[in-house]
Amino acid sequence: MRQVILDTETSGLDFEKDRIIEIGCLEIVDGVYTGKKFHNYYKPDNITISSDSEQIHGLNNSFLSKFPTFDSSVQDFLEFLNDSQLIIHNVQFDLSMINESLKRMSIKQIEKKNTICTLELAKKKFPGSKNNLNALCRRFDINLDSREKHGALIDSFLLLEVYNELLGGK
Hints:
37% helix, 170 residues, globular, 7 helices, alpha/beta
């Protein structure tokens, strides 16, 4: 079974106003990373990245200005997904950002039923605990040295390890 681990970085938290500025995806087949990945940066159209967001991921409008927008290159992303089940930490947020873009482009949206939310899995497994990606990495003794700031591809690799642990470990 093919699944895709997915993470995004965005210009802010408002799915109607803000834009996807980085996306990272990892292909897994039968639970094993195949080495195939999708990673791109995107300019946020005419949106200024909030200082709060820039503090989190370190991406700014100047750096991103040379890249296409997510909306203009969404087909490449959809071809990589190829109707695979998506594994996302906080599906509600990432899927809202992706689907708002698909809506703007008049493209069929991704259905939530085709996703697994690792945040929901963690909340069920560890009720009342912190279940953000950092907390889960610490809980499962996953090395965070490669993560100075949030990054879609780095976070996808961390999420792959967290997901494996949530399913019972290596």
